[in-house]
Amino acid sequence: MNSEEVRRALWRRGYEIIEECPIERVIVPKGGEFLDEYYQRLFNYRFRRFLGDLLIFRKDDYVDCGALFSRWKKDEVEEHWNFLLKAHIIENLKEDHYLFSYFYLDNFGETLEWFISEILKREFYMPTIWGIKIKEIKGGGDFDILSILENNLLYVECKTSPPNNIRLREIWEFLRRREVLKPKITIFFIDTTLKIERNIIENIYSLLERRFMKSKEINVFSLKDGVYAFDNGIYIMQSKGDIIKNFQVVFRHFLDG
Q1: Which residues pair with 185 in a beta bridge?
Q2: Which one, 8, 27, 124, 175, has least CB within 10 Å?
């Protein structure tokens, strides 16, 4: 599934893509042999968290095994660890010295964007682009994921930070990008199982009420555990339950209108 349909949708609106995230910013297996298995493993929330911790627990270019395995019990993540070795995401150079192949990365954000984009392409057959910057949008034209859902432009914002670490300014910028681009459906995806009602739901509601939808009634409700809907095409998703089913719940709700 290529991205041309999304690019044409942006071009018709008079928007030009000026930057795209290089694949080198994504943690993926070296070579294509293990890519499909890696994609399937990314559905495991603990595997994603473990990958993210490889970016945190490092000494120079190497994995800080002492710090990493003080947080994770090695027998619990042994299968993940062995896969990362097999896929050359980490390399055993000598005893207890493991090189992290993506030592130059400082966050998991682009990998999450790539993964969610792959879900939309592989599971839902939706044309998708990710990690782009659009020239004509003032105040920041960075869009994590854009796609097409049955002729409707879809915008997905991805967050890897815990809810308490997502600043009000980030949410304002997300809503501002949505206001300018005017996608029909928008999803704010947070890769967490922590409670988000206070830090995320209430902040989005407050910003909509005070700035982005001042003259309209605002309603928000839960579609299922970890999936919320505002009545203006904005959805909030967490990493609770089956990600594919969660997207199905959102898409069905939106399309049933």
Answers
A1: 154
A2: 8
Among 171, 158, 179, 227, which residue's Cα sits nearest to residue 199?
171
176 touches 204 (CB < 8 A): no
- Determine if the pTM surpasses 0.70: yes
CA distances to 133, 136, 171, 224, 253 from 177, in Å: 11, 11, 10, 26, 23
Give me the half-sphere count of Cα atoms (radius 13 Å) on the Cβ side of residue 35: 11
Cβ–Cβ under 8 Å, residues 131 and 118: no
Question: Residues of 14-47 as b/e, b for ≥16 C-beta within 10 angstroms?
Answer: ebebeeebeeebbbbbeeeebeeebbebbeeeeb
Alpha-carbon span 136 to 18, nearest angstrom? 9
Q: Is the Cα dihedral 197, 247, 31, 47 positive or negative?
A: positive
Place of tokens 């009602």: 197
Instruction: For Cα atoms 23, 41, 22, give the angle at the middle one, nearest 5 degrees.
Output: 5
26-85 pLDDT tens trace: 999 998 899 999 999 999 999 999 999 999 999 888 999 999 999 999 888 999 999 999
